[in-house]
Each structure stands twice: as C-alpha cells, then as structure tokens.
UniProtKB/TrEMBL annotation:
Example of a GO MF term: serine-type peptidase activity
Family matches, as InterPro entries: 6-blade_b-propeller_TolB-like, AB_hydrolase_fold, Peptidase_S9_cat, Xaa-Pro_dipeptidyl-ppase/CocE
Organism from which the protein derives: Microbacterium enclense
This protein's name: S9 family peptidase
Any Pfam family the entry gives: Peptidase_S9
Top-level taxonomy: Bacteria, Bacillati, Actinomycetota, Actinomycetes, Micrococcales
Amino acid sequence: MPQTLPYGSWPSPLTPEAVAQSSPRLDGARIVGDEVWWGESVPSEGGRVAVRRRLADGSVETVLPAPANARSSVHEYGGGAWTASDDGELFYVEKSDQRVYALTPGEAPRALTPAGGDVRHGGLSWQHGTLLAVRETHGTERIPARAIVRIPLDGSPSEVLAEGSAFLAHPALSADGRHLAWIAWNHPDLPWDATILRVADVVTGAVRDVAGGDRRAPLQPVWIGDELLYADDPTGRWNLFRRSLDGAPEPVAPADADTGGPVWDLGTRWFAATPDGRIIAVRTNGGDEIVEIAPSGIRPVEVPVVAGASIDDVRGSRVLVSGSDPQGRTTLWSLDLDTGTVSSVTGGDPFGVEWMPIARSLTTEGPHGPVHAFAYPPTNPDVVAPDDERPPYVVLVHGGPTSHVGPAPSAKTAFFTSRGIGVLDVNYGGSTGYGRAYRERLLGQWGVVDVDDVAAAASALASAGLADPDRLAIAGGSAGGWTVLAAVTNTDVFSAGISRYGVGDARALAEDTHDFEARYLDGLIGPLPEAEAVYIERSPLSHPERFRVPLLILQGSEDRVVPPSQAEAIRDALAAHGVAHAYVLYEGEGHGFRRAETVTDSLRRELGFLGAVFGFDTPGITPLALD
C-alpha cells in the first residue's frame, strides 16, 4: 500500500547520478551495409560524442573510441559532425581542432583537412561517393567566411562548391554529380525567418534561386531523380514540395502540421525519400508523428516517437528514425516500410514506465492568444500525497527561444515528478511546432509575450486546482533563462527561479554573442541603436530592485553564447538587494551542460534549492544554503 508523504519529499530511485547517466544524446545515424551506426554522447567521458555500430549479429562496437570527440562548432551549435561511406569508413570532425578525419574501424585516423587557423567543419554528408561539408573560416573580421566544400579523401585541398552568402546548410548533390542544392540566408534573418533554396551547376558554376524569399524559409533539399524535394512554408506551415529545375513547385500532401523546424544545428533531418519514390516524413503539431507518403496515399508509420523526431537515414525500404516516445525514452529505431517491422537499435527504458509521468496537453488563453503546454503531474507508484495538499510545480522554459518541447518527459522531468514536484513544459509564443503565426508572435516582443505566456500557463494550472499557487518555480536555460529572470522581475506568479546560463542584459548579449545569432535580437526586440531604449527597459538587470524571489544561477565557465559576465552581474545585483540566491560556476562547461558530474551536481542543487525555498524535506539531498 502506498505511503502518504508531503509533496516534494517523496523518496525516489531516480538519483542525480542515474539521471546524468541515463540521458545520452543521439547525434545522427546511418545504415552502413548490414550495420547501423550512430553518434552518442557519453556523459561519463566528459560528454564526448562517440560513434558506435550495431553489427549484423546484434553486438555493439565503438567505432570512434576515446579520446576522439565528434563535435562541430560551426554556427557554435555544430551538428553533422560525422558521417560514413557505404563501405564503412568513418568521417568525423574532431572537437579539439575542428579538422575532418577519416577512420577505418580498427585503424588510426588520418587527417583530411589541414591544420592551422581557426577553420571549422560541420554538416558532413557522404553523397554519391563525395564527402561534403560546411566550412567556416574565422579571420580578423567578426563575420566568418562560410562555404560548402568537397573534401578529397587523399588529403588534397578542399574544393569550394558554393559560397556567396553569410550562412549555408543542407547541401544535396544530384546523383549524376552535376547539380548541388542548398539553403542560404543572410543577416539579419535566421533560418526560420527567411532562406533561399539555391541550385548550382557544378560544371559551369551557374547558380539559380528556386524557392524562398521574404517570410519564406525553405529547408532540406533532397534529390529524387532530376527533381527536388524540399520543405517550404508559403502557407505558414512547413510542408513538402517537389519541382524540376525548370518547372513550378507542386505541393506534396499538404497538412496543418510542420515538416521542418529551426536549423539550430546542421544535423537534423525531417524527411527522406526511398529509391522507389516514397517519402518518410515527420509531422509536428504540438507532438510529432511519422508518416509515409506514397502514390497510394498517406499512412501513419507505427514508430512510437512523439518528440524530437529525426529521419536519420534511408536505404532501400529501411529507415532510421530517432526521437522520444511518450514515456520519454530517447531511442533510435530501425523500420522496414515494406514489412512494417520496427526494432530498437539503441536507447530504451532506464527507469521503468511506472516512474515516468504521462504528458497532459494543455491549452489556455493568454493575453496574446492561446498558449500551449504539457503538464507532468507528480508520479510515484509507492507514494501518495495528503488529500488537502496541492503540489509544487516547476515551470520549464525552453531555450531558443525558437525551440519546441513535445509530449515526452525527460529523465530530469521524472527526477522531479517522482519526488512529488510537478513539471509544466510551456511552448510559449515564439516556439516552433505550431506554424509561423505562433512563432512570429514573439517578434519585437521578447521579454513580453514569453513572460505573459508562461505566467498564464502557470496561473491556469493553479486556478484549476492542479498546482499550489504559492509554490510555483520557473526554470530555464539560455533564452529560457532570460524568460526566467524577466518573469520573476515582472510578475508575481513565481516564488522562485532557476536560471541556467540565462541572459540578463540584452545589450550585452547583442555585443558579445557569436555570428549566428548576431542579429537575432533585431527581430526579437529591435535593431540597435534605434531600439536601445527597449533593450534597456526589457533587460532584467536594468531593474535590479525588482528581484524579489530566491534565485539559483548555474553557469559554464567556457560559455561563448552567454558568457559568465552576465551570470555574475545577476549574482551581484541579488547580493546588493539582499535577495536570497546561490551562484555556481562549472569550470570547463560551455553553453549547455554535458559532463555527468555537472549534470549530477546541478540536479542536486536544483532539488536542494526547491526544498529550501518551499520548505519540504529532500531525502538524500541536503537543502541548498543560500547567500
């Protein structure tokens, strides 16, 4: 019989150490002959990305052993840091020097690109016997030079195939090697604002624009014979189109859902085509689903993915799909479109489904329109709460802000819910996954719409009697950290805040941030210097007297996106105004925590902070001392 204990104090087997080890990030996958290869972060090895393979007999081997680390820093966020040839040669970007290496399993790696200078590579792909990459060359200018290059396997100099814009992504080479397609964009746009789909004749060098323009963001070209398949959003939803080079675009199975998303990194793929012309695609409308589009019609594919879905590779009728299922299990699945068989390649259930909360989809009206969120109630098979108590909740604010959360609990979510602390994941206005209009709600309104939306979602949960209105905390990282700080200074909804590498001064972010996001704030707040007064008014650090509730601030020492100076300024403001707080700087961590020891320590501190602020015991974890 379950025991009765106050919310927040429930004993749980989901220790910080277990959570840190249970959540490796999958980083692409390929079918190589009869084998499946995939990239996987290893928290116990400093978060390095290894490449592993499952052999035909079912055994698993590591192709890229320590200390090698397949990590790109193109656009700072990287992506596409490895690929493989059809005969089993690995190509990868080494994090430490950003050079591209080739590795035959069991042999020593050999460098394919030269040493010297700040030259980075990412978006690697092996297409028709050719190794392609996005190359980023840093010099004395703030804006790096970027190009799509062909990398010879004999170590000779790379050949530039495309350039001429600030940013490039998604190179696609036609089967005959004659044409190269890619997407391009320039400041001040981001790749979800406006991009151009371009095609070059590799022989003549002639380039033409075939899709895109103002408030259009075509993505991910794929060749089907001599036609292009790509995603575009003329209707406000990313849907599929196909066209010949000399023809008009034709819609492919339009839907009120998105096949596409924000190009934060160079590795995610939302669709692919089989040799016989069938299309396998992700559709997102809050949650994800996988569909097959064929001449005979459209059918859902029975892969249990609801969040973070990616179509990683196709060979014949075999498809690799990665993502998370409703129980939060991040998995790489292999499926056969002909037979309908689905099998798990890697990933799975680290804790047991009884410990994983099931998402409740919530939509509430806010000041700017509907707000979408997913609620995860306290979930523990061994404990119940007193009948007269309502649970504390942590309201999670994703980063980006142009990101998205689906209806799949993370291990961190279960860490809290198993202890009697509910979690509310909010897709505030500005999030992807609901179309362009919802995404553009945030234009010029960062620090307003996001704050209003998370406050409305949290208040609705409390008004429905599902959460204790006096024990609502808000937590987020990066852009989500900005919303945390703005919410605790501009609303009275939240009683505590947790900011991970959050933005406190928008002007400092505009000055310090890297090139990929250098003009991001033009759209989110306004161009400088014209909008400087708005930057000052919106920035939480401009109003230190408004800090009133306890805050936990977590920061990486090597963060180049939001440097430690921002976190330290927040700490100093809290100390000057006598607000209870704790500040933790993690040496060697960047923008996002990857090391197992960092994840473990941050979880302990977050739970200890909530226990100290909300007044409940945290078995096995000492309440956090606040300054």
